[in-house]
Amino acid sequence: MDITIYHNPACGTSRNTLALIRNTGVEPQVIEYLQQPPTRETLADLIARAGLSVREAIRQKGTPYLEQGLDQTQISDENLLDAMLAHPILINRPFVVTPLGVRLCRPSEVVLDILPLPQLGGFVKEDGEAVIDAQGKRVVPHA
Question: Residue 140: what pLDDT?
Fold first, then answer.
């Protein structure tokens, strides 16, 4: 099974997403994008295949977003990509690639939409939120 996650081990959402992938019995290719940033072409492709704009794929919190002036609406997608490649922390995470598509998995359970194999058992996120029950079925949040 060919699954790739662009992962930041310091990010809870990224850790939860990786754990949900592993809960299918698959060990994905893990790319720690802060150490191994994607190429410009790969990054642009991930963003496009996820159905996002470049601006939607940029991370603001805990990054040099404001210091770089990236909040200015006239900044082109090309310049935003340049900034993301110069400062990979600006790349929102985690992006996951499977045979069923590409998603920016925020929240982490978005990954369930593109995992080809079922969950093998229960899963609870780091914050205690149950996502998958003991039978491997998605938990429906109470409204």
Answer: 82
